[in-house]
Design a protein that fits this description.
Rossmann fold, about 675 residues, about 35% strand, alpha+beta
Amino acid sequence: MTIRSTVLAVLLALVAPIAALAEDDRWTPALSMRYHRISGVAISPDGSQVAFGVTEPLMEGEKSEYRTRIHVVPAAGGETAAWTRADDSVGSPMFSPDGRYLAFTSSRGGERSQVFVLPLAGGEAWQLTHAEAGVRSFRFSPDGRSVAYTMSDPETEEQKTRKKEKRDVELVDQDFRYAHIYVALVGDRPDPDAEDRRITRGAFHVTGFDWSSNDRIVFTHQADPRINTNRRSGDLSVVHLFDSAVTLLRGGAGIESSPRVSPDGATVAFRSTGDQPEPVGLGDVYTIPVAGGSATKLGETPDRSPGILGWSRDGSMVYVAEAHRTSRRVFALPADGGSPTPLTPGPGVFRSAAIATGADVMAFTHETPGAPWDVFAADLAAGGGPASAFEPRQLTDLHADVPRPAMGETTVLTWDSGDGLEIEGLLTLPPDHVEGRRVPLILNVHGGPAGVYSETFTGAPSIYMLQYFAAEGFGILRPNPRGSTGYGKEFRFANVMDWGFGDMDDLMAGVDLLIERGIADPSRLYLMGWSYGGYMTSFAVTRTDRFVAASMGAGLPNLISMVTTTDIQDYLAAHMGGDFWDDYEVYEAHSAMYRIAEVTTPTQVIHGAEDLRVPFTQGQEFYRALDRRGIPTEMVVYPRTPHGPREPKFLMDVSERILTWFRNHTPTAETTTER
């Protein structure tokens, strides 16, 4: 090695740490991707151990995918250990009721997802199920000796032949591949010759299930697998394993889902829309005897959109999770019909809650705008109700080694929309913000419309990397306008047949509040949103020229063409009060395309090429119209992408493209003003 090369090597060695420090000293999409998500939490029956998945992006070379590994930590606190191999991606951790196994799903060794069991006493995991088309979901029997799972109908030999011979013509809405229940026996060792037993069959699609005894399974089902069908049909039945006989427990016009059986196996809790479908979105918890009888409605939760977690071990409570304003909380519903009681406090977001079946312990994740998610455990009061003092134990510190630069502070704001409706939102300011200095403001609109912005970690990897925008000097306002979840039924239904009008007033009232308070610069306002947020972006630029630039992600500017091409037709039609052929004027009034001549705002269009929720043509319509009118625009298309990026490289790409678009259309003159 020459003296010159030696000196160069030394200089590079000295500069490398400085470069790394500089890179980590500022929020970027690449840094946010280092905050790895928790996917699934499980707790052992005795409440002593917690299992959870950690999902990390793989982006080296040709890879752009995610890999999940399962970790286990003592519920009392202690060392965390990875329990699955680094080269396999796994999911859905679950402890067996007898405490012998930790089960999970994985496609290791093949193309289809299977259930694997890992002996807790030690040893290698082995494949339990033999699902030709792959396992969708699974649950252990009460004695732990069987696993039931759902699988979509595999291809027939004729279908396989047609595919090989390039004769695989698709008949739309015909030849459905239904999901049905199968059972595999849990032995002491792997059995490659074992055959799983099919339990249900017929022209219906299983959507959820739970064991009520070792020979009986309660399940919900709908007419076919289409996502729109779950807004039209959903019944509750029980099947006996010895003869596969099915008995209907609850039918009718309401939609039943998410069955969870009580510890004694006698009662099933389920979510139902009551005596009619509720395509806009509404549900309550009911119970019914597994042996048959009348259903009982339990107490209504604050938002009437609960997700059922399970029962207390004495059967006196049903645990549910639900959005509550800008938080997400766990509630206990008395099985006797009493009012719900919150188990978790208000601040932050509680997710992935799991309750031990044999102990009064709950595991969950928690995050706040300034702190990323970690795994926690907390003791519950005997009898399943809330403890007198909620004292969670933090079990993990998953991101201790990930840099956390200075963060823009996030606060919850409340304002009056003008018609008396109270609106809430989250404001994130730049890390170096000085009071009295106005900032460029991004109005970021959520999807749904029944989405909600919650107090989640603002450094998280997402379509919109919030701290990245904040680090670049932007304030970000994320309102929860009428139609959002978390604020009760009346608020969620308040934008029915009113898309783009009352909700836009809610949004702009928040912007005006920040201008009035001297926070936002009125000459540097920007707009972005995905899905329904994309709809609001398209609609807003037809009603106002106040935004310097806008970015429409997976937006739906033409509701007439949207309602007959989306896979959730009933959801849109319910919000519009019916189908467009019954009232063209309503659809036209709420569609941005019919006011396209009013647009002057430079508007970027982003869409996934494989989007069925908001079909690709929706973005294409808006882009082509803007381009033909000479409005500055560009269309960004992500291949292989459904309703939002699924590949980490694409996810990391979105915010940078939006920021570039905003920068390219920012006024050149200095517009910052002092209050």
